[in-house]
Design goal:
Elements: E1 8-13, E2 19-23, E3 28-33, E4 36-41, E5 47-52, E6 58-62, E7 67-71, E8 77-81, E9 83-84, E10 87-88, E11 95-97, E12 103-107, E13 122-126, E14 133-137
Antiparallel strand pairs: 1-2, 2-3, 3-4, 5-6, 6-7, 7-8, 9-10, 11-12, 12-13, 13-14
Length: 155
């Protein structure tokens, strides 16, 4: 379909069948729509995992800014989570949105460890509406991709 990417990750399809994906080293989010690929977001802070929420916002894990963000269809970005108990996240990596709109995400740290302040690499849950961030798994090393069952009972 296309070339010129360094390392693609995080594909996510919206309700219309458009697909967004990241090129981490080039710090871009691309969108495939109507057979064409274009840059959806430049300087994406090394975005990785992506998913669309029920409001058609693109939710992204951003390594560079160490945050989970929401990007509306016009490209406006809102930080949903970037700290846990007052300390910066490691490098959010992959995510899954449950049927209630809550967001599970992994937070490992690949590459250098500069600035890491969390006490390990964990899995978190951001409650629907972003009101609370809960650490749900704390005994993994380099947690990566995740997905849950449709009923949300198994992660």
């Amino acid at each position: 379909m296309a070339d010129g990417f360094n390392f693609t990750e995080g594909p996510a399809a919206d309700a219309e069948g458009n697909v967004c994906f990241t090129d981490i080293p080039n710090s871009r989010i691309h969108k495939w729509s109507d057979g064409e690929i274009y840059v959806f977001q430049e300087n994406s802070q090394q975005a990785n995992g992506l998913a669309f929420d029920l409001q058609a916002n693109l939710i992204a894990c951003k390594h560079g800014s160490r945050a989970i963000v929401s990007i509306d269809p016009q490209g406006n970005e809102t930080v949903l989570a970037d700290t846990y108990k007052g300390k910066k996240l490691n490098s959010p990596n992959d995510l899954w949105i449950d049927a209630k709109g809550g967001i599970y995400f992994t937070d490992p740290r690949y590459g250098n460890r500069d600035g890491v302040v969390q006490d390990g690499e964990h899995v978190y849950y951001l409650t629907p509406g972003g009101k609370k961030l809960i650490r749900v798994i704390d005994n993994l090393i380099k947690p990566n991709g995740l997905i849950g069952t449709p009923d949300g009972k198994i992660l």
